[in-house]
Design brief:
Radius of gyration: 19 Å
Shape: globular
Structural class: mainly alpha
Low-confidence stretches: none
Order of helices and strands: HHHHHHHHHH
Number of strands: 0
Largest sheet: none
Keywords: Membrane, Transmembrane, Transmembrane helix
Strand content: under 5%
Organism: Blastococcus goldschmidtiae
Number of helices: 10
Number of domains: 2
Protein name: DUF4386 family protein
Distance between the termini: 29 Å
Length: 206
């Protein structure tokens, strides 16, 4: 891929998003500004409404993009960071678009089922992280534990917003360090449980 193709791809993605917004607005019979404007401004709410939620979504996307970039440019970590990037970006979209809270239930998909899919993905990545340096795996598991607390509070303790959203923010911030720690790890770093070579061998054909 030529470097200029990245710019073209970015413009195409942006165009598709805007075209989709116009199509959805027409189907719903709403003005397109309902999809493009800030929700707090449209509702006449204070400008700081949802600031933690907005910041969390920004960190989700930043961590996912960073993981994807390092997976693309650093072959040593590609097998672990590529699925991690997919999970981060999926969670970012979920958090931004309320997929598990609103969209899923409207389509007949229970919230717990969506959580289960994310959980299985996280468990798969946790297994892959056994081949990373200890600090990288520790950062992943710490972030996963904080996010699990957020999910537990969301399901069992409705209304505890500070605990739920606070644990989520801390979890994604810790997860955002995973690609940086992996990329900066010394080449001779000792993986968790010494499984790096075993994982490398299983990934080879034949």
């Amino acid at each position: 891929m030529k470097r200029r193709d990245l710019v073209i791809a970015a413009l195409i993605v942006g165009g598709l998003v805007l075209a989709s917004a116009v199509a959805v607005a027409r189907l719903a019979g709403d003005p397109v500004g309902l999809l493009t404007r800030d929700a707090a401004a449209s509702a006449g709410l204070p400008p700081y409404t949802g600031v933690i939620s907005t910041f969390t979504v920004m960190v989700w996307f930043a961590a996912g993009t960073l993981s994807a970039f390092i997976a693309w440019t650093d072959g040593k970590h590609r097998r672990r960071l590529a699925p991690f990037a997919y999970l981060l970006l999926a969670l970012a979209a979920d958090d931004a678009l309320l997929l598990h809270e609103s969209v899923g239930p409207r389509l007949g998909i229970h919230e717990l089922l969506i959580y289960a899919v994310y959980g299985l993905g996280a468990l798969r990545i946790a297994y892959l992280m056994l081949g990373e340096e200890r600090i990288v795996a520790l950062a992943f598991w710490t972030g996963a534990a904080l996010l699990a607390i957020s999910v537990l509070v969301d399901v069992a303790f409705l209304g505890a917003y500070l605990l739920e959203d606070g644990a989520k923010l801390l979890g994604v911030l810790v997860w955002s360090t995973v690609p940086l720690l992996a990329h900066s790890a010394p080449r001779a770093a000792v993986p968790v449980l010494g499984l790096d070579r075993a994982l490398e061998h299983r990934s080879q054909p034949g």
